[in-house]
Sequence to fold (258 residues):
Amino acid sequence: MGICDRLFQLKDRVAIVTGSSSGLGVTFAKGLAEAGAHVVLAARRKERLDAIALEIEAMGSKVLAVECDITREEDVERLVAVTLRKFDRLDVLVNNAGMTHVVAAENESREMFQQVLDVNVSGAFACARICGKVMLKAGSGSIINIASIMGVVGIGLVPQAAYNASKGAVVNLTRELAAQWARRGVRVNAIAPGWFPSEMTDELFENEEGHKFIRKRTPMGRAGLPEELLGPMLLLASDASSYMTGQIIIVDGGWTIV
Ligand SMILES: NC(=O)c1ccc[n+]([C@@H]2O[C@H](COP(=O)([O-])OP(=O)(O)OC[C@H]3O[C@@H](n4cnc5c(N)ncnc54)[C@H](OP(=O)(O)O)[C@@H]3O)[C@@H](O)[C@H]2O)c1
Fold:
């Protein structure tokens, strides 16, 4: 096998994808499986995970579906324990589970704000920490946090203060974890997507005004296709990015360049 064949090789690597019951997480899980990885699906809606697991199994990969609320540390501990029991290794964490409330800041209660931070920041940190421990022990691993363009710019017209604060936190959490673990074989990077269809963005995509807004504001004149996140995902998950850590890859059709 030549070096270029080896670069993106994920054969028999084991990847946990959180938030893989809908949206981008499904695309990430299927993409990693197609690249040869065994995949562990994690989210709260177990029946959805089971259906997606069947599809992935049919692709020839080994798969595990685990009900997990990332705001509950005991759930995350169990997720990692059952992963190790089945596969005896953990190579990749896609820290993808996330949520938002679209609400004007002046009406966003402390409880709403806190809920978003609990999932997007504390939940993601718990996953990184608990998976990170296993990876540090093994001396290798790749953590890919799913941030957002809303972690590097504001927007106003789709008001979501907690979400933007949380994704800003994910961006710098990525850098700090990367710096702490760089000498111990564990890389931590992030993908910051622009606008992509999913349950989270349903409302925006369902009305023509929303579409128009995205087309007008995006230099490429369109939203992204979920598959367009797979290139960066496979780069960061595989040895192709062996000298990259702490990086934020923005995939947004140019949204943040203007
Ligand atoms: N779509 C976009 O345009 C876009 C842009 C930038 C960034 N992102 C980010 O991409 C990630 C995926 O979002 P999406 O757009 O694919 O939205 P989505 O379809 O709503 O997916 C969110 C996923 O997170 C899971 N989740 C939510 N709370 C959870 C919890 N407490 N514990 C475990 N899982 C939980 C949900 O599953 P359950 O409800 O079954 O638990 C679901 O699978 C998020 O981090 C989001 O911020 C999306």
